[in-house]
Amino acid sequence: MDPRSFPALASGEPDRWDQALYAFLVEKGNRSGSARTVESYGRMLWPFFRGRPPDAVRASDVLAYAHGIGPSGRPPSAATIGARIACLSSFYRFLIRMGIVTANPCDLVERPRTVAAPARGLSADQVRALLAVVPDTVAGRRDRALLLTFILTGRRRTEVMSLTVGDLTVDDDVAFYAYRGKGGKRGLRELPAPAYRAIVASLADVGRSVETMGPAESLWHRGAAGTRLSGAAFYARFRRYLRAAGLAPTGLHVLRHSAAKLRRDAGESVEAVSSFLDHSSLAVTTTYLRRLEGQADTAWREVAVAIGV
User: Fold this and answer.
1) Do residue 100 and residue 166 come from a single domain?
2) What's the distance, Cα to Cα, between the start and end of the chain in Å?
3) How far apart are CA 288 and CA 123, in angstroms?
4) pLDDT tens-place string over residues 190-212
């Protein structure tokens, strides 16, 4: 984690609690492989502990923070309350492992029940509609390459947006990409030909090629050579494409859901989809797919007949 992303310290020098928090965030980044996760944890932890040492925190402090009204002026949702408690609890578990504190005040705070929102995945027809509204321009062809990479690889936002030239290899005309996934998992996978061809064409638009670019250079340009496209900028464009295609607004993670859904629709087994998604177990994939596909009700017709409707 880049130390420049840490907030400035009033004293100018980190005390032992600051150092512990630094270490926790670095460990979290190394384990998750996600800069966004670390940033999210940092945004919650730094304000909470500003001027308040962890060994002075009580369960009542955690409760007040978890249910506190944020900058929006609205009461937090159950998911937000749960996330705040989970973040603090994770830090305290780290402190206990390090022998810095002996108790976790979050253990005394009851977490709210949350109901997982139904996962959404785009159908093949919806994906075609989405691709159809992407303009045939330099930026549009880059966005099409990104969309194809998301949908055909099923990788997460950070994993796709962080791809560089050095992550690509070509062997006997087959392209492969190296990635670092959630939990630090690393892999080398085939990059489907339509995505690779779209990337090559997009780079050619700005006079670049994977053969001549440096290994640390991003695959996703902003239209000017050497300028990297940010995830936030692409997300904003993605939302506009959804509107233009008449699709419901959602986040980029819907493309990972879509990748799983399309593979199941194409007849792949749960085991194959689980391997494709890098899930830790088949149980995770089964739950994931059940939320995407829904559960058929085979008995309602008989019940309807019985009650005369």
Assistant:
1) no
2) 62
3) 16
4) 899 999 999 999 999 999 999 99
